[in-house]
Amino acid sequence: MMNLFLYSTFFIGGLSLFQYSFLVGSLNRTYLGLFKGVAEASIIAYSPSGTAVTPYFSKTLFEKNVNSYFQNNEIPGSGVVEPTFSYEYGEYYSAAKPNIAYVSISHPMGIYGTFDKTARFEVVDSENE
Q1: CA-to-CA separations, 29 to 61, 78, 87, 106, 129, in angstroms, rounded
Q2: What pTM was computed for the model?
Q3: Mean pLDDT throughout 1-20?
C-alpha cells in the first residue's frame, strides 16, 4: 500500500512539473513572438501626404497590434495575456510621437510565482537605411 502511495505521489508530481513547463514554454514562446514584426508594423515613417518624417511608434496602432497578437496567441489552459504599455521619447521626439515602446506581460502561475517579462522596442533613425 505504501508503494502505491509513493508511485501516485511521484506520478502527480511529474504531471504538475509537466504542466508548469508547458505553461512557461507557452508564455515564453508567445513573448518571443513579439519580436517577429509586431512592433515594426506600428512604425510611422511617412506623413499622410507621402513625405518622409522621423520614424516613430503610433501608440494606438502599436497597442492594437500587440493586443491583437496576444488575442490570436492565447495560452492553452490559461487564457489571454494582458500586456501593459509604456513609452519613452528621444531627444527629437515629442510626447505624441515616441521612439521607444515597452510591452510588459505578467502572468500568475499559481504556486510557482509569476511570469514577468518586458520587451523593449526602439526606432533607430539610421542614415544607412
Answers
A1: 23, 14, 24, 14, 30
A2: 0.76
A3: 85
